[in-house]
Amino acid sequence: MNTDLTAIVTFHREGLLAHATLRSYLLARNRARERGIDVQMLLLLDNADHETAEVVRNHPDLAGDELILDTSAGDCGLARNIGVSHSSGTYVCTLDGDDLISRDYFQRHVEYARSVPDSTILHAELVVSFGGTEHYSHQLNPVTMPFSNDLLMVVNPWISAIFARREVLQRIPYVACFPRLTGYGFEDWHWACQTLSAGLEHRVVPETAYFYRVKSSGSMNQNSAALRAVVPPTRLFGTWGKA
Predict the structure, then answer these.
(1) HSE (CB half, 13 Å, CA atoms) of 18?
(2) H or E segment and range at residue 44
(3) 115 is in which domain, residue-wise?
(4) pTM of the model
């Protein structure tokens, strides 16, 4: 049977938080399967600590058909690329190892994706932040809201959890950043720029929510900001050559 969706979940040092995260994701997987949508769960343990690995491997909600990979990419973008290379789904979505999703997240994304052009990139409609801060926001929908590519010169209007056909992520992979070594960061921001420069459309999926855990410290975005990292050069804003 063909796999409709591969959900790539990247874990690092989430510890016990990974339990609630996996419970949320696997509940959404089961709900999608009840409606005839096959979801492959691909769980990446990227330099994960022992506690996190134990929580993931021994989670009581695992069905036994999940693919669990130990990786040592050490970079969010490279880890996602590894996940894509092991994916079997027509569609791929990326998720973090300490967040939550609405229970019909997978189902609604797949159903909506089937109604739009193949190259469309999808995002949850709502982002509900919790933990270090509590608020919610609507993600920008270029189809129904004023939008210019120039916006991405100053901000990334979407979080890192994305949904697209697998060939989109194969054609436009994430770029490694390693901000402490290169000064570059925000791989998801860069990827959004690259997809827009390729002429791909972004949309939001109605009635979907992503629950984003805000850490008090230590997140990749916080570390990149503290280092004053910048987004790698992107075709969206032209190229630079010798004068």
Answers:
(1) 25
(2) strand 39-46
(3) 3-233
(4) 0.93
Mean pLDDT of 150-173: 97
User: What is the tally of structural domains in the chain?
Assistant: 1
CA distance 145 to 160: 20
DSSP classification of residue 151: G
Q: What is the CATH number of the domain that holds 82?
A: 3.90.550.10
Question: 83-87: which pairs have CB atoms within 8 A and are 24 or more residues apart?
Answer: 83/6, 83/8, 83/10, 83/42, 83/44, 84/8, 84/166, 84/169, 84/170, 84/173, 86/42, 87/6, 87/8, 87/40, 87/42, 87/166
Cβ atoms of 45 and 27 closer than 8 Å: no
Residue 243 domain-assigned (yes or no): no
Does the residue 107 lie in any domain?
A: yes
Q: Is residue 241 part of a domain?
A: no
Residue 173 in any domain: the answer is yes
pLDDT tens, position by position, 86-123? 999 999 999 999 999 999 999 999 999 999 999 999 99
Confidence of residue 62 (pLDDT cuts 50, 70, 90): very high
- Residue 243 in this model has a pLDDT that exceeds 50: no
